[in-house]
Hints:
4 helices, mainly alpha, rod-shaped
Amino acid sequence: MEDSTGISAVDTVVVWSLACAAIVAAIGVLWRLTRGFRRIMARVDDIVDDWQGVQPRPGIPGRPGVMARLGGIEARAAGIEERLGSVEHELHPNSGQSLRDAVDRVDVALNGSPPDPPEPP
């Protein structure tokens, strides 16, 4: 080595300092290069948590997963369909017990004429 200081201890310290600086620089470059990947993985982790749900932790309530929430939505929709069916039963003349049949009977009693036939939907 021609660029030597002539003192072997100083030369050794310089070489090790350059090696450490090169290693730190390489780690910094790798850290910057992987930043985008780490951000994407954090978002994928959030998506997985939303899909599977999160168990409650101290101070943080749990959240059900997508499939559990869909099951709840389907159960509520089935309840609404039942209620809608019973309301629809009352709006059309049928067995004589519906609200529409009762209104028709009152109309006949007051006006003396049968109601107009219902129009098909």
